[in-house]
């Protein structure tokens, strides 16, 4: 009996110490940890929130991103053409066959980043109207994060190529740059001053080392790209990136460290998922799925795959799930409201009201 009592007491002491540490940290800093596999949308959510709370970049800052946008457009156009060719697809119109050659022959002139040549932008614009080309982008471009923004950039290519072009905040959000390491974002206004957002880029396999620095994390936002079901995994250990994402979630959610941390699970890239589900069946990659091309059924199935790996006790309040398109502006409001509500609920809980 005595042994049981002292073991229980030590455990209780450990918990009390953890909750005092957490409460102390709570009054000075609210850490939000953004996790997910590469390309899931963590930086997109961070940038959207930063733009909404702090205002977007200045004109000079946006102008400095022009080269990155050009590079993205040129790489995406070349990749789409190469994919089309390797699949043996042909454009219907003769002029589009010539446009293919123009795109393949064009190399970005990094010494002159003031505009894209009209010959190149017109070639992309005309090709984008060709069903064969469009089909390739949506059907076979799936294995590249670069291609998630391809439709947006091809749609906008004439504006982007024009002399005097300055990227908009939306253009910049659409460009993909792989985040290396952990990037912290702070805010300057109102209660958001206490929020420190940590965008965890390239996954560090020995997460046990750095994760200790985040023991008092207020909220975890875990991002999943719904469209990852047919994409190659980054670590090369899983059959596809969705399985890699499930494995990462399983690892994080069952870590004792975060047993009492609210988790917001975002199923992102609904727009890409919608466009590809009918053409690339989910059951090719997940044979036990039987809902066909019904987007709701497919989302429910994927959600079940994630919630099914939770082993530690986690009440409904601590895990919420949402299906989103991070590039849509209204998603920022959802994220912002969700963070605020979770902070408030946790504050009430810590004050003993819940
Ligand atoms: N179409 C579409 N594209 C999206 C969406 N969310 C993100 N993207 C694009 O997907 C690409 C990758 O998004 P990021 O936010 O950079 O992904 P990440 O999780 O930060 O990736 P890493 O830094 O590699 O870990 C970018 O080009 C985004 O613009 C979405 O909902 N729809
Ligand atoms: Mg990133």
From TrEMBL:
<keyword id="KW-0564">Palmitate</keyword>
<keyword id="KW-0519">Myristate</keyword>
<dbReference type="GO" id="GO:0005525">
    <property type="term" value="F:GTP binding"/>
</dbReference>
<dbReference type="GO" id="GO:0005834">
    <property type="term" value="C:heterotrimeric G-protein complex"/>
</dbReference>
<keyword id="KW-0449">Lipoprotein</keyword>
<dbReference type="GO" id="GO:0001664">
    <property type="term" value="F:G protein-coupled receptor binding"/>
</dbReference>
<protein>
    <recommendedName>
        <fullName>G-protein alpha subunit</fullName>
    </recommendedName>
</protein>
<keyword id="KW-0547">Nucleotide-binding</keyword>
<dbReference type="GO" id="GO:0007189">
    <property type="term" value="P:adenylate cyclase-activating G protein-coupled receptor signaling pathway"/>
</dbReference>
<dbReference type="GO" id="GO:0005737">
    <property type="term" value="C:cytoplasm"/>
</dbReference>
<keyword id="KW-0807">Transducer</keyword>
<keyword id="KW-0479">Metal-binding</keyword>
<keyword id="KW-0342">GTP-binding</keyword>
<dbReference type="InterPro" id="IPR027417">
    <property type="entry name" value="P-loop_NTPase"/>
</dbReference>
<dbReference type="GO" id="GO:0046872">
    <property type="term" value="F:metal ion binding"/>
</dbReference>
<dbReference type="Pfam" id="PF00503">
    <property type="entry name" value="G-alpha"/>
</dbReference>
<dbReference type="GO" id="GO:0003924">
    <property type="term" value="F:GTPase activity"/>
</dbReference>
<feature type="binding site">
    <location>
        <begin position="268"/>
        <end position="271"/>
    </location>
    <ligand>
        <name>GTP</name>
    </ligand>
</feature>
<dbReference type="GO" id="GO:0031683">
    <property type="term" value="F:G-protein beta/gamma-subunit complex binding"/>
</dbReference>
<dbReference type="InterPro" id="IPR001019">
    <property type="entry name" value="Gprotein_alpha_su"/>
</dbReference>
<feature type="binding site">
    <location>
        <begin position="148"/>
        <end position="149"/>
    </location>
    <ligand>
        <name>GTP</name>
    </ligand>
</feature>
<keyword id="KW-0460">Magnesium</keyword>
<feature type="binding site">
    <location>
        <position position="43"/>
    </location>
    <ligand>
        <name>Mg(2+)</name>
    </ligand>
</feature>
<feature type="binding site">
    <location>
        <position position="179"/>
    </location>
    <ligand>
        <name>Mg(2+)</name>
    </ligand>
</feature>
<dbReference type="InterPro" id="IPR011025">
    <property type="entry name" value="GproteinA_insert"/>
</dbReference>
<feature type="binding site">
    <location>
        <position position="326"/>
    </location>
    <ligand>
        <name>GTP</name>
    </ligand>
</feature>
